Amino acid sequence: MPKKLRKRKLGEPSEFSRVGDVLKEFKTDEDKYITYEFQKYGYELAKELNDLKNKSLYIKLAKETPRGLLETARNFVKDAYKVESPPKLFMWKLSKLKTEKADTQEERKR
Predict the structure, then answer these.
(1) Cα–Cα distance between 41 and 63 in angstroms, integer?
(2) Which residue from 58, 59, 63, 60 is spatially nearest to 77, judged by alpha carbons?
(3) pLDDT at 8 over 70
(4) CB under 8 Å to 39, separation ≥6 — which residues?
(5) How many alpha carbons lie under 13 Å from residue 97 in its C-beta half-sphere?
(6) Structure confidence by residue, pLDDT tens digits, 45-95
(7) Interval 25-58: pLDDT, tens
(8) pTM for the structure as a whole
(9) HEC sequence for the chain
(10) C-alpha distances in angstroms, 54 versus 28, 43, 45, 59, 92?
C-alpha cells in the first residue's frame, strides 16, 4: 500500500517551488528564446556591460568558460571607477585571469 502524503500547511517551507511562482518570475518578453541557464547568464552579462549587440559572445563565454573567472572579471569591471569601455575592460581582465590560471596549472604539473 502506498505511503499517505501529508498536506503542507500554508507558510511551511517546501522543497520545490510552486509552478505559479516560477511562471510569475518568467519574463515572456526577454526569456522566450532562453532554454539554458548559461544563455540567461550570458544575456544578463551583456546587458550589465551595455554590449547587447555582442550578446552571443557572452553566451558562448558563459557556456565554455568557468563561471568563477567570469564572475571575477565581472566584479572587477563593476568595482572599477570611470570606465570608458566596460566590455574592453572585461575582456582584458578575463584574458589575464585565463593566462594566470594556465600558468598556475603548468607550475603544478612540474
Answers:
(1) 9
(2) 58
(3) no
(4) 33, 59, 62
(5) 18
(6) 999 999 999 999 999 999 999 999 999 999 999 999 999 999 999 999 999
(7) 766 666 667 888 899 999 999 999 999 999 999 9
(8) 0.69
(9) CCCCCCCCCCCCCCCCCCHHHHHHHCCHHHHCCCCCHHHHHHHHHHHHCCCHHHHHHHHHHHHHCCHHHHHHHHHHHHHCCCCCCHHHHHHHHHHHHHHHHHHHHHHHHC
(10) 21, 9, 10, 9, 16
- Phi first, then psi, for residue 86 (nearest 5°) are -55, -40
83 vs 57: CA distance, rounded Å: 20
pLDDT category of residue 12 using cuts at 50, 70 and 90: low
Q: Burial, 92: exposed, middle or buried (Cβ in 10 Å; 0-12, 13-18, 19+)?
A: middle
The pLDDT assigned to 110 comes to 78
Q: Where are the domains of the chain?
A: 28-109
C-alpha cell at 109: 604539473
